[in-house]
Structure formats: C-alpha cells, structure tokens
C-alpha cells in the first residue's frame, strides 16, 4: 500500500482554468513536505518546502498548502508553460530522513 | 544555483555488462542519492550517501552498488546489467539538514539490450 497518494493521476485544463492537485499520506508524523515540477526528459525541479500544518507558499501561479494529512497545489489561471508532472514528497518521521515521493500528477494546459 | 551533472543523458549497454553511472555536484553537499524512475512507479530510492565513503541501501538496492570516494562525486554501478534495469536513473544531492530539498540532475536514460 502506497504511503503517498497523488490525485488526480492526470489533469487536462484549458488556459486560465484554475484547479488543485492533491497529495495525501497515510503515515503520521510529518517533518516537512516538498513539491517538485518535472518536465519531460528532465530531473525534478524544486518548487516549495512546507514545514507545518497551516503553512502556505506561493510562486507565480502556484500556491501550496499543508494540513496534517494532505497538501494541495493550487494552480491559478494556468498557462501552457505550466504543463508538467508535479511531484510531492513528504518527509515522514522514522526511518532514514529521506522524502517519500508520490507518483505525480501529469498536468496539461491547453491554449 | 546548485548544479548536479550526470555524465550521460542516454546509454545503451548489453546484458551482463558492468555499467557505471556518474554524478557530480558543485555545491559541497554532504548527501547524495540515486533513484530510478519508471512509468507508473514513480521515483524509487536505490542508494544514498550521507558523506564520503558512507553508503546506505535504499528501497531497491538489489543488483546495484555505489561508490563515493570524493564528496562531489557519487557513482552507481550495475554489477551485471539485466534488461529489467532499463530505466531513467536520477541523481540528487542535498545540503546536510534533513528538511533541505534535494536537487536533481537531468537523468540518464539507460537501455539494457
């Protein structure tokens, strides 16, 4: 059973159509959570770190929020250049202090 | 900006060969990581290293080994390549603190024939 679940697996939006991506985790004891963006043929690119429930971070059209059991990546008025796979990676307590990656949400924004 | 460089973007090898994947980072980061990424499976951790000459097994170490003789360089070794090791391999580095983000290279797409 996956510890980290991202939904939806794939999302198609029209340019300007706002939406949210979800990242939920089943293990308690969150030490932090990372969001990354990955373009085809490239490595993941760091976007945000969230450390505690209630925290929010923003960058251009992206806003990440965090609760005890899930995180959301809100995309406001997306543009085609926002098309990418978005990965979340919670840092869960116990173990080796290495983030556990979700399988990602593939976002396509049509012009 | 942190730069993590993987020596090859694409690599084709034959089954049974010993394969070396190289990764170099230029920011004096203590921690380095090797992942493989497969469609539908996401990123899976193979090995990681907290410092020079230190190594720890990740979730899927079987068939792989690593070497870290210098702080900036972390090598992944496929001892005897098999077709099920065909994958995208990603290297990452991280400054010491556990809540610091990882910085990734652009990957090596490895095909084993």
What would you say this structure looks like, in words?
The complex is a heterodimer of chains A (111) and B (113). By secondary structure, chain A is an all-beta fold. Helices cover 0% and strands 55% of the residues of chain A. Chain A is built from no helices and 10 strands. Chain A has strands spanning 4-7, 10-14, 19-25, 30-38, 45-50, 56-59, 62-66, 70-75, 84-92, 105-110. In chain A, the strands form 2 sheets. Chain A has a 5-stranded antiparallel beta sheet with strand order 1-3-8-7-6, with no helix packed on it. Chain A has a 5-stranded mixed beta sheet with strand order 2-10-9-4-5, with no helix packed on it. In chain A, a hairpin with a 6-residue loop joins strand 4 (30-38) and strand 5 (45-50). The radius of gyration of chain A is 13 Å and the shape is globular. Chain B is mainly beta and 113 residues long. Helix content of chain B is 0%, strand content 53%. Chain B has strands at 4-6, 10-13, 19-25, 31-38, 42-49, 56-57, 64-70, 73-78, 87-94, 103-104, 108-112. In chain B, the strands form 2 sheets. In chain B, strands 2, 4, 5, 6, 9, 10 and 11 form a 7-stranded mixed beta sheet that branches. In chain B, strands 1-3-8-7 form a 4-stranded antiparallel beta sheet, with no helix packed on it. Chain B is globular and about 40 Å long. The A-B interface holds A 31-32, 34, 36, 41-46, 49, 51, 87, 91, 96-99, 101-104 and B 4, 33, 40-43, 45, 48, 56, 58, 90, 92, 98-99, 101-107.
């Amino acid at each position: 059973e996956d510890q980290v679940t991202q939904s939806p697996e794939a999302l198609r939006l029209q340019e300007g159509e706002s939406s949210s991506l979800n990242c939920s985790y089943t293990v308690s004891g969150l030490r932090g959570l990372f969001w990354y963006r990955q373009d085809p043929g490239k490595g993941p690119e760091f976007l945000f770190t969230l450390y505690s429930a209630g925290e929010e971070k923003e960058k251009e059209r992206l806003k990440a929020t965090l609760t005890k059991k899930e995180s959301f990546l809100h995309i406001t008025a997306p543009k085609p250049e926002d098309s990418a796979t978005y990965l979340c990676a919670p840092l869960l307590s116990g173990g080796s202090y290495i983030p556990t990656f979700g399988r990602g949400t593939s976002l396509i924004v049509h012009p | 900006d942190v730069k993590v460089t993987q020596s090859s973007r694409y690599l084709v090898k034959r089954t049974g060969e010993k394969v070396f994947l190289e990764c170099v980072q230029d920011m004096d980061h203590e921690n380095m990581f090797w992942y493989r990424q497969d469609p539908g499976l996401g990123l899976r951790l193979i090995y990681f290293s907290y410092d020079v000459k230190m190594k720890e097994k990740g979730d899927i170490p079987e068939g792989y080994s690593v070497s870290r003789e210098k702080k900036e360089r972390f090598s992944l070794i496929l001892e005897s390549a098999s077709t099920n090791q065909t994958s995208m391999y990603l290297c990452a580095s991280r400054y010491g603190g556990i809540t610091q983000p990882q910085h990734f290279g652009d990957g090596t797409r490895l095909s084993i024939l």
